Amino acid sequence: MAYKGSTDQPARVDMFGISNYISGLCSFIVDCETPMTIAIQGDWGSGKTSVMEMVRDSIDKKAVHCCWFNTWQYSQFNTSENLSLALIESIVEGLNIDGGDTVKEMRSGISKIGNAMAAVGKKALVVGTEIVAGSTLANDVKGAIDKMGADDKSVVETISTLKERFQECINAACEKNKVDRILVFVDDLDRLQPLRAVELLEVLKVFLDCEKCVFVLALDYNVVVSGVKQKYGSDFKADKGRSFFDKIIQVPFKMPVAQYDIYNFVKKTFEYVAQLTCEDYDTKNFVALINASIGSNPRSMKRLFNSFLLLLKVVDSDMQDALGKKILFAILCMQQHFEGLYNYIVMNRGDLTPEFLGQMASDDDVETLLKRENIETDKIEPEKIQEFMKHFNRVLATDGEAVDGYKLDQLRILLNSSSITSTTTTTATKKRATFVYKGDTYMARGANKKNLATFALRIILDYAKETDKTAEQFLDMINSKIPCHYSDMKKEGCLQICDRNNSNLSAKQLEWYFTDKDEIIHLGGKELIILKGWGAWENSALVEVLGYGDRVTSNV
């Protein structure tokens, strides 16, 4: 099978069902008054460039002429100090107008400002543009001019002339291309260092105010606020960031991430990138895993799929059945968003039990459980980890079946392979819980009935021989402290220990209990049975409840 993978190139095909937003933007750009500046806002990887690309492809070329500038690419070639000048020059080049006095004067002015910056620094450029654009306070303008030297004042005059020439270039381009406006896309502004992004916007403001111009900027609001804070330092106030943004931007457009059609994206990506048919039920499970982990950021989802495809080339073919692929996908969702939990499970994969996985999804106090197991939460709310584990367990419990030994073995093997796509070094510690009782050591997956479930049975049998409690008292004492974490058994009213004759027990549920003659607890004339899947924390609680702390030695 030839898995293609997914690049980080901007999408030019709508896979998220946002065509109405694209058409709305196009219509607004064509019909709005000019000058106009629109900010496409969103986190890194949320699809800002893709939206701009789709607008450029879809917009009526009879109405607008398009120019494109990528600030990130220019800044990588040591031109970041003169980035604002490079931007203006690039726009003029993109207008595709014939050479003439206007263009020559533009280039001459840009060159003059560049030379002045080399001589006296960018102070004159920034102050000069503030004065020309009117972004300084009125009572500060005279003081700013009074402090400037002759070279600085010359820069201000050049900037003022440059704006006039730029307007003439825009008019000429509209006439040549028979359009009534120029659409300028400025991409990746928010990938610049915040202070530099703000300085670039200050210079750009002069040209944003030119008639027949519509600017579309890929710009995150938080970057602007951070840049303004750096600029003003101790004088920064929250409203300064908002005021600066509002002065530059007339129309904020926030990426409609919450409205993304993730279902369609997942299904189409599996078909195109992985060349795998994804049934509706499976697609819904994959979407639930994504929503509960990495979220709907397109770049994060592409990274997830690429890791998935890489591992499909690595893991053994006999692990690539339908269930194996689902488990692998679920593991990668955990790896990319819940690194602490992933690292813990990888390190302790040999001791994984259905009970532990069930506790992670249904424990009433999952925060305490995470702390007890020393699982790093990476400052993620415990409730979010628990919500993810519900979907994770749903993948393991295919068609509602219990998580059996075969599925756990499959999970362990895939966990072992998955580490090659992890971006961090595993720092979790391997925890193998042990309990020493009457000279015998019991541990998770211990051989010859030296496991934790058998340990629980042994101390309960001994307690039953020594106590004068009734069966009802015993059940209340134990089950109120150590509730069962199988949700379907909770519904049936069955807990960790129950009356063997409980009518709620189905044949399948009985298989989960000790039922041999020597594994039945006789107490007060009744027979009790206990669930096999006891883990470390249940046993610790059991030792405490029974008062066996002086009889048991444990490393938990």
Your description of this structure?
The protein is α/β, with parallel strands linked by helices. It folds into three domains: 34-257, no CATH class; 277-421, no CATH class; 434-554. Helix content is 54%, strand content 9%. The chain is built from 25 helices and eleven strands. The strands form three sheets. A five-stranded parallel β-sheet has the order 2-3-4-1-5, with helices on both faces. Strand 6 (434-437) and strand 7 (440-443) form a beta hairpin. The relative contact order is 0.08. Residues 135-150 have low confidence and may be disordered.
How big a fraction of the residues is strand?
A: 5-15%
Assembly state: single chain
Rg on CA atoms, Å: 33 Å
> Helices and strands: which structural class?
alpha/beta
What does the largest sheet look like?
5 strands, parallel
Task: Please give a handful of descriptors for the protein shown.
556 residues, alpha/beta, 3 domains, five-stranded parallel beta sheet, three-stranded antiparallel beta sheet, 25 helices, 11 strands, 54% helix
Task: Give the helix/strand layout.
Layout (H helix, E strand, L loop, with lengths): L18 H13 L4 E6 L6 H11 L5 E7 H5 L7 H12 L6 H20 L2 H11 L4 H10 L2 H28 L3 E7 L6 H15 L4 E6 L2 H12 L5 H11 L2 E4 L7 H11 L7 H12 L6 H17 L7 H16 L1 H9 L6 H9 L3 H7 L9 H15 L8 H14 L15 E4 L2 E4 L8 H15 L4 H9 L7 H6 L4 E3 L7 H4 L10 E3 L2 E5 L5 H11 L5 E3 L2
Parallel strand pairs: 1-4, 1-5, 2-3, 3-4
Antiparallel strand pairs: 6-7, 6-11, 8-10, 9-10
